């Protein structure tokens, strides 16, 4: 059995070598599904620490981008082992960089952190048309819709998306959170979102508050 | 001297006095309206990129109808140059959208190519980066040479058109342009155009020494690219000014900033200050943890266009070092009332204007059609021009 505390620490330190070695060890064993689950949990706890180190000003965006990449590669490696077991999910989020914007770094940071917090994320990608978001919400019935964008023109698309959710009669069944450089309290009100954040870790906390 | 030329000179004096940290007659107002200007004039961003004359017409309308002392720059991109070279990196998502650049299309250098890059950055750019970035330059001769000649010709024409726009703005409206060119930090070059932002954050962790060496090796070339732009246009009575948009610093932790960003940044800033060129970085993001670093820059020889920050703290820390530009939230021009906009402008002027050294402007360029209501822009700028008079 790998030392889960060491794994949590390695994820928090973004130490790929230690993580990879431990994961290879797990994968080399037969009947490793249960242990793979534990490893995922340990890494998720490590991501929480990454978020705390960001909050405290020790880590910055660059570290979060890299953390997302490290977590993604851990999950990819463990996928074959994990498919045997199942993991309980927190809430469900439909996430998108809105129509008219191609910037996804902030969205991807948020995705990796909110996945680490055990949410199921349906990431629709970049430049996502309003209708596609509405259709997905109808299809998967999420708890939360997350809209992201960096350019100021993304704000218009966010507003249109919220309006379309309203028109489709879906607005009352989901919470909407917006994120990205240009969002602030005024913008949030004008768009009709429930919350905004320019900080992924804070965004995760808001989402946890909604489904908790 | 004609009335228009007097106005031109008066505006230049106001701006350059302020840049030198002297108190001018009043706080200057810089128009930072970028591609928003296209929409203001009834064009799309794409139209002005393909037809530089339309960009000129849009800027004439800004100069004619909006109260500003100076326009920051000619904002369009030469679509014809990119087309001639076969670029696929810029995207229009719809007719009414602005041109964008995706991180995916930036990933054109492999992670094991740093040593080759560092050995001779110029050769690497010409032989490896350009053919990967521009499809036409990847073809065999003479197709490649023809594409290069066509691109160079288009670029030369673009330079001529830009010069004509600058001349018309001066002659018809007494309106100066602030920036004579743009430079980028080697690290931002690598992140934005060669490796992608995600790639660079991985490289910092996985190959830190190679990454640092590449930045160091690239710095002299970046300086040359900047000086090339300084000399490209005709001489001016006032110093030339370069815009220096800074992308990655606020995403880095201080230790990484100190290691990878600051040494080259300081070298570039000192070089241009010594050559009487004003470099004005756009300090993107929240720079508050680096204000002490900025105090080390050559005093009164640079400006700083700020996006974020507490105006009091910025004034306190940087008043002897650099002229401060910006900080007015663009989103307020879009969502706020006239009264809210004016209240914010007053707050900025109360903190930043005393003694000089502040140029009023938005915290970021206005890009999208809805980025600013013209009536708000006019109300705020008129307010600054009256309230900002030094008595």
Automatic annotation (TrEMBL), chain A:
<protein>
    <submittedName>
        <fullName>Cobalamin-binding protein</fullName>
    </submittedName>
</protein>
<dbReference type="InterPro" id="IPR036594">
    <property type="entry name" value="Meth_synthase_dom"/>
</dbReference>
<dbReference type="InterPro" id="IPR006158">
    <property type="entry name" value="Cobalamin-bd"/>
</dbReference>
<keyword id="KW-0170">Cobalt</keyword>
<dbReference type="Pfam" id="PF02310">
    <property type="entry name" value="B12-binding"/>
</dbReference>
<dbReference type="InterPro" id="IPR036724">
    <property type="entry name" value="Cobalamin-bd_sf"/>
</dbReference>
<feature type="domain" description="B12-binding N-terminal">
    <location>
        <begin position="1"/>
        <end position="90"/>
    </location>
</feature>
<keyword id="KW-0479">Metal-binding</keyword>
<feature type="domain" description="B12-binding">
    <location>
        <begin position="90"/>
        <end position="212"/>
    </location>
</feature>
<dbReference type="InterPro" id="IPR050554">
    <property type="entry name" value="Met_Synthase/Corrinoid"/>
</dbReference>
<dbReference type="Pfam" id="PF02607">
    <property type="entry name" value="B12-binding_2"/>
</dbReference>
<dbReference type="InterPro" id="IPR003759">
    <property type="entry name" value="Cbl-bd_cap"/>
</dbReference>
TrEMBL record, chain B:
<dbReference type="Pfam" id="PF01208">
    <property type="entry name" value="URO-D"/>
</dbReference>
<protein>
    <submittedName>
        <fullName>Uroporphyrinogen decarboxylase</fullName>
    </submittedName>
</protein>
<dbReference type="InterPro" id="IPR038071">
    <property type="entry name" value="UROD/MetE-like_sf"/>
</dbReference>
<feature type="domain" description="Uroporphyrinogen decarboxylase (URO-D)">
    <location>
        <begin position="196"/>
        <end position="383"/>
    </location>
</feature>
<dbReference type="InterPro" id="IPR000257">
    <property type="entry name" value="Uroporphyrinogen_deCOase"/>
</dbReference>
């Amino acid at each position: 059995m790998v030392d889960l505390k060491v794994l949590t620490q390695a994820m928090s330190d973004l130490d790929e070598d230690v993580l990879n070695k431990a994961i290879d060890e797990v994968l080399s064993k037969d009947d490793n599904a249960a242990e793979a689950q534990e490893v995922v949990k340990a890494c998720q706890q490590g991501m929480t620490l990454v978020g705390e180190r960001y909050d405290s000003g020790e880590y910055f965006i660059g570290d979060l981008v890299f953390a997302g990449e490290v977590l993604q590669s851990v999950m990819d490696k463990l996928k074959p082992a994990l498919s045997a077991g199942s993991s309980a999910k927190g809430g469900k989020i439909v996430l998108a960089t809105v129509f008219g914007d191609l910037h996804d770094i902030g969205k991807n940071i948020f995705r990796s952190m909110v996945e680490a917090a055990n949410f199921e994320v349906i990431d629709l990608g970049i430049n996502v048309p309003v209708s596609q978001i509405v259709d997905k919400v109808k299809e998967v019935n999420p708890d939360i819709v997350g809209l992201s964008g960096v350019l100021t023109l993304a704000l218009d698309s966010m507003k249109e998306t919220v309006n379309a959710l309203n028109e489709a009669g879906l607005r009352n069944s989901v919470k909407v959170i917006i994120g990205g450089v240009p969002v602030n309290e005024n913008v949030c009100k004008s768009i009709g979102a429930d919350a905004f954040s320019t900080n992924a870790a804070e965004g995760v906390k808001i989402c946890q508050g909604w489904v908790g | 001297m004609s009335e228009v030329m007097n106005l031109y000179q008066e505006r230049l004096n106001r701006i350059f006095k302020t840049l030198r940290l002297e108190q001018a007659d009043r706080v200057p107002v810089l128009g930072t309206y970028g591609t928003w200007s296209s929409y203001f004039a009834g064009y799309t961003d794409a139209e002005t990129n393909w037809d530089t004359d339309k960009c000129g017409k849009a800027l004439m309308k800004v100069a004619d109808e909006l109260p500003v002392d100076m326009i920051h720059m000619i904002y369009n991109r030469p679509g014809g140059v990119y087309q001639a070279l076969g670029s696929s990196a810029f995207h229009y998502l719809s007719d009414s959208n602005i041109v964008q650049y995706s991180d995916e299309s930036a990933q054109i250098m492999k992670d094991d190519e740093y040593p080759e890059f560092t050995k001779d950055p110029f050769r690497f750019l010409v032989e490896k980066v350009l053919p990967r970035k521009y499809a036409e330059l990847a073809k065999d001769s003479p197709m490649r040479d023809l594409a290069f000649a066509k691109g160079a010709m288009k670029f030369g024409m673009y330079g001529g058109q830009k010069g004509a726009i600058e001349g018309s703005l001066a002659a018809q409206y007494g309106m100066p342009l602030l920036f004579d060119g743009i430079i980028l930090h080697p690290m931002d070059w690598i992140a934005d155009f060669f490796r992608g932002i995600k790639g660079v954050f991985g490289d910092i962790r996985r190959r830190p020494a190679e990454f640092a060496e590449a930045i160091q090796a690239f710095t002299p070339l970046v300086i040359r690219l900047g000086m090339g732009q300084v000399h490209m246009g005709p001489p001016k009575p006032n110093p030339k000014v370069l815009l220096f948009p800074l992308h990655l610093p606020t995403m880095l932790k201080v230790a990484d900033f100190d290691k990878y960003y600051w040494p080259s940044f300081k070298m570039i800033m000192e070089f241009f200050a010594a050559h009487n060129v004003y470099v004005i970085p756009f300090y993107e993001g929240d720079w508050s943890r680096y204000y002490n670093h900025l105090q080390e820059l050559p005093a009164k020889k640079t400006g700083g266009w700020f996006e974020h920050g507490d105006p009091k703290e910025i004034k306190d820390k940087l008043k002897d070092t650099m002229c401060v530009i910006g900080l007015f939230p663009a989103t307020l021009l879009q969502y706020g009332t006239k009264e809210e906009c004016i209240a914010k402008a007053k707050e900025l002027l109360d903190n930043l204007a005393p003694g000089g050294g502040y140029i009023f402007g938005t915290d970021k360029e206005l890009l999208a059609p809805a980025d600013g209501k013209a009536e708000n822009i006019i109300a705020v700028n008129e307010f600054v021009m009256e309230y900002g008079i030094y008595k």
